[in-house]
Design a protein that fits this description.
This protein has one domain. By secondary structure, it is an alpha+beta fold. The longest helix is centred in the middle third of the chain and has 15 residues.
Length: about 60
């Protein structure tokens, strides 16, 4: 049976402050949805992370 591996959340990008919680990940607040997506892609590329889009509009950048 394969074991599951958990990955570290490197960063969180959102447009809504109400979704911000504690933790080690750096959180960034964008002004609008377009800026949020653009910034998420740029940040993930620079950190060499994987982007996960949540249904509530939050983007997580996970370590690879």
């Amino acid at each position: 049976m394969p074991s599951k591996r958990s990955r570290e959340i490197i960063a969180v990008v959102t447009t809504d402050k109400k979704w911000i919680g504690g933790g080690k990940a750096q959180t960034f607040i964008a002004e609008n949805d377009e800026q949020c997506l653009t910034f998420t892609r740029e940040l993930a590329r620079s950190l060499q992370g994987e982007v996960v889009a949540m249904s509530n509009g939050i983007y997580l950048i996970l370590e690879m």
